[in-house]
Amino acid sequence: MSARVSESSEPVFEARGLRKVYHTGELDVVALAGVDLSLHAGELTVLLGASGSGKSTLLNILGGLDTPTEGELRYKGWNLTDGDERTLTLFRRNCVGFVFQFYNLIPSLTARENVALITEIAPDPMKPEDALDILGLSHRLDHFPSQLSGGEQQRVAIARAIAKKPEVLLCDEPTGALDVTTGITVLEAVERINRELGTLTVVITHNAAMAEMADRVLYLSDGHIVKERRNETRLPASALRW
Q1: Separation CA 181–CA 151 (nearest Å)
Q2: Between residues 135 and 8, which one has the greater pLDDT?
Q3: Which residue from 47, 85, 56, 41 is spatially nearest to 198, judged by alpha carbons?
Q4: Strands 27-39, 44-48: parallel, antiparallel or unpaired by DSSP?
Q5: Domains of the chain
Q6: Rounded to whole angstroms, how far apart are CA atoms 205 and 176?
């Protein structure tokens, strides 16, 4: 699978000088220390780094869940750092799909109903059944989370994230709670969404093996991007081992 992302177009995200400082009593914790990056449509980017390197903080800022202390973040030319909470809420609702390490499914709702929570508030969503079918779960529509395996629950969470047809899919350690075999199945689902829907996909992980499936790998340490690598050829998720 060849890398195929063009950088001639306007970036989906463009960040300049992003800093994030958390104030805890008398102590200031610098989570991001001046990050510059551009992310483009159709790209699959892996943010790689140890715990505390700033990966989750950067992902949360990209997704409008947090705001930087300093710097500027633009989404398709629009300055998100100037947005109020209502604007950021609309941005999160309409433009971004989130996948987290823990599935956050509602236990009393079926797979179909968990996805429908999103499709009922999105402006132009897929049908829940169609989103679940993309993830290979058309036979699990009416099963409750307790009746699904961990990998199936994570795939329901991905279906929920993509059902609103977001331009951006942000994944925070999506395989962190899964064994290797199940984790690869989930990564195959992420890979398929990126390939077939052209969704800009950002995956954060501490697992170096996942770097091989990306167009681009950004290495974070102590709040900085310390290295960037481009893969001429993406390794299929099915070939990953860790």
Answers
A1: 9
A2: 135
A3: 41
A4: unpaired
A5: 41-66+92-239 (3.40.50.300)
A6: 8
Tokens of 175: 């395989």
pTM: predicted TM-score of the whole model, two decimal places:
0.91
Amino acid at 32: L
**Per-residue model confidence as pLDDT tens digits over 195-219:** 999 999 999 999 999 999 999 999 9
How far lies 168's CA from each of 11, 13, 130, 161, in Å?
12, 10, 19, 10
pLDDT confidence tier of residue 1, bands split at 50, 70 and 90: very low
**Contacting residues for 83 by C-beta, under 8 A, at least 6 apart:** 64, 91
Name every residue whose Cβ is closer than 8 Å to that of residue 56 and which is 6 or more positions away in sequence.
172, 204
Sign, Cα dihedral of 160, 209, 242, 196: positive
- Phi and psi (nearest 5°) for 130? -70, -40
* Torsional sign, CA 32, 18, 87, 158: negative
CB-count exposure of residue 165 (10 Å: 0-12, 13-18, 19+) = middle
